[in-house]
């Protein structure tokens, strides 16, 4: 009996020691798939290969309940959250764009005129990469994407380099802020025409049997007019691909990013066994570009998911050949997506579009505002005792700017009327709540006062709030609703499960496999990956995921 106990104690000790003794990975690869809701994994798993998503889901750690705990589920905030482990309130990337009151202009989250256009200037926190490079002088931190904001916000302030694709120029480019490699960019860009030539047509692949498609998609002929289309791709298969820009709206756009990543690994000798761990951030943007057009229920989305799976299988096989068991992969997404509202309604759900767009400069009177904007102006004016009509000059409006999800007040007008600013904020908030589809609205003053017990959506809105960037009245839509820009297709950006629930998958060195059902957040990845290499990254709300032994 004692011998048996001793034996099991020794076994436990041996296991503990062997886990502690496992050396850190030489390379961490964090893959973000832009616009990839968790439900894609569950819906399309029967059609996955062995070595793509299934490698991570079956042989790695699969966190089935990972939700972004904030409201502005967009590319900028999402990639900042993945790279830094911080909520938008702390990363400062509260949205893709916000209105800057000082300059009176719209500010883009990675704008920086001094660095040739783009840099992490607006990023307000350090990142996993920063922490890694503080500890290991020789660590390399790279990011590759089709989108500037995805690459830059994951690379962070101290990243070695961030590369992205300039669709207008038809090639990869980089920020002058980092130490980018012109020869690498040129070599990659020489291969772009071949990649385009290899894919003259996007056809439905055979990975999903035709008999299953009707059951797992909702893409009737009658609703195709609600899909969007860029670059003459059209709204149904087969899609002719006319050039490089069109290619980025197909799953073949992923080949540009993965191809660049492999060249980068070679050129920079990333992941060498030198005791200085490296990080490679990869963001696949094409699923977002095409997802906005075709929607998550489309045949195109289904095909993109299973094609992306095969692309990842090839990529992982390439990493295996280079690094064997010396690397760790994490996979997540910057946000999910909601159904095209018209498709959602066809499936019996409540859905719609809310048009809050700013008036064009040539507009003269209130009557030319969008219906929702006019309604808010009139309701707020009535509450404040101001007389307005459809003929009121447009400069007299109370809302100067809309930048989703916020209204920015026309403070000149408030001063002219000698109104109390707080009363104006509350009047606009209450008026916004009358618009169909708007579920929640808060004044900036409400959000500036801490409320540790704030319920669900309010907490998410608070996690996305920064007083100097977020606007005067912050709104959140009800599930099913999206902001309308006069187009077709769909979007994301709301504190709803469809947008917030994304994959969190880890595989490789230091990862204990399993299916983990407890609620976690993608913001936990930075802290978790940091723990693997012995650095403390991430925000105060983030945890080391239980797939890593403490
Ligand atoms: Zn998007």
Quick take:
Helix 12 packs antiparallel against helix 13 (299-323) and helix 15 (371-384) crosses helix 17. A hairpin with a 2-residue loop joins strand 15 (399-403) and strand 16 (406-409).
Task: Annotate the secondary structure layout.
Layout: H1 2-21, E1 27-33, H2 38-44, H3 53-59, E2 61-63, H4 75-84, H5 88-91, E3 97-100, E4 105-108, E5 111-112, E6 117-118, H6 128-135, E7 141-145, H7 148-155, E8 161-166, E9 171-174, H8 182-198, E10 201-202, H9 210-216, E11 239-240, H10 244-247, H11 253-268, E12 278-284, H12 286-294, H13 299-323, E13 327-333, H14 341-346, E14 352-354, H15 371-384, E15 399-403, E16 406-409, H16 411-416, H17 421-432, E17 438-443, H18 444-448, H19 456-463, E18 473-477, E19 481-483, H20 497-500, E20 504-508, E21 514-516, H21 524-532
Helix pairs in contact: 4-7, 8-11, 11-13, 12-13, 15-17
Report how far the terminal alpha carbons are from each other: 30 Å
Q: Could you give the order of strands across the largest sheet?
A: 9-8-7-12-1-13-20-2-21
Low-pLDDT segments, ≥5 res: 13-19
Helix/strand-derived class?
alpha/beta
Strand content: 15-25%
Helix amount = 25-40%
Taking the sheet with the most strands, its summary is: 9 strands, mixed
What gross morphology would you assign?
globular
Number of strands: 21
Hetero groups: zinc ion
Distinct helical segment count: 21
What is the alpha-carbon Rg in Å?
24 Å
Overall pLDDT confidence: 95
């Amino acid at each position: 009996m004692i011998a048996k106990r001793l034996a099991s104690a020794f076994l436990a000790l041996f296991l503990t020691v062997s886990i502690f003794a496992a050396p850190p990975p030489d390379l961490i690869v964090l893959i973000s798939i832009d616009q990839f809701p968790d439900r894609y994994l569950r819906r399309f798993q029967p059609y996955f290969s062995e070595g793509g998503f299934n490698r991570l889901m079956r042989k790695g750690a699969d966190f089935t309940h990972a939700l972004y705990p904030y409201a502005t589920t967009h590319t900028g905030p999402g990639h900042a959250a993945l790279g830094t482990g911080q909520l938008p309130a702390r990363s400062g990337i509260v949205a893709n764009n916000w209105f800057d009151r000082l300059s009176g202009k719209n500010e883009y989250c990675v704008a920086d005129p001094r660095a040739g256009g783009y840099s992490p200037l607006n990023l307000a926190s350090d990142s996993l990469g920063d922490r890694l490079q503080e500890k290991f002088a020789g660590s390399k931190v790279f990011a590759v994407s089709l989108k500037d904001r995805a690459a830059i916000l994951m690379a962070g302030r101290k990243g070695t380099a961030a590369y992205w694709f300039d669709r207008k120029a038809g090639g990869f480019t980089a920020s002058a802020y980092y130490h980018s490699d012109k020869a690498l960019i040129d070599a990659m860009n020489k291969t772009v025409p071949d990649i385009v030539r290899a894919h003259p047509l996007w056809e439905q692949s055979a990975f999903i049997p035709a008999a299953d498609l009707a059951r797992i998609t909702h893409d009737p002929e009658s609703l195709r007019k609600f899909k969007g289309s860029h670059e003459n791709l059209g709204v149904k298969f087969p899609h002719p691909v006319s050039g490089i820009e069109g290619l980025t709206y197909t799953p073949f756009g992923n080949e540009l990013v993965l191809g660049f990543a492999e060249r980068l690994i070679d050129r920079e000798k990333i992941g060498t066994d030198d005791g200085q761990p490296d990080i490679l951030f990869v963001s696949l943007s094409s699923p977002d570009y095409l997802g906005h057009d075709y929607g998550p229920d489309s045949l195109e989305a289904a095909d993109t998911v299973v094609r992306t799976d095969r692309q990842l299988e090839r990529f992982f096989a390439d990493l295996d050949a280079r690094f064997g068991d010396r690397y760790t992969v994490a996979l997540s997404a910057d946000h999910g997506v909601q159904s095209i509202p018209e498709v959602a309604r066809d499936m019996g759900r409540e859905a719609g579009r809310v048009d809050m767009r700013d008036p064009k400069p040539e507009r003269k009177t209130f009557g030319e505002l969008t219906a929702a904007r006019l309604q808010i102006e009139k309701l707020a004016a009535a509450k404040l005792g101001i007389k307005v009509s459809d003929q009121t000059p447009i400069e007299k409006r109370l809302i100067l700017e809309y930048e989703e999800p916020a209204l920015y007040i026309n403070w000149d007008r408030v001063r002219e009327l000698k109104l109390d600013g707080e009363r104006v904020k509350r009047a606009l908030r209450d008026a916004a709540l009358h618009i169909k589809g708007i579920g929640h609205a808060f004044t900036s003053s409400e959000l500036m006062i801490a409320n540790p017990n704030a319920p669900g959506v309010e907490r998410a809105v608070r996690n996305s709030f920064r007083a100097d960037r977020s606007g005067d009245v912050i709104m959140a839509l009800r599930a099913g609703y999206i902001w309308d820009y006069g187009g077709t297709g769909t979007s994301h950006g709301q504190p709803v499960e469809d947008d917030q629930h994304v994959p969190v998958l880890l595989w490789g060195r230091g990862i204990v496999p399993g299916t983990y059902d407890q609620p976690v957040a993608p913001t936990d990845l930075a802290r978790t990956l940091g723990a693997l290499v012995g650095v403390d990254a991430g925000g105060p709300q983030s945890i080391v995921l239980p797939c890593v032994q403490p």
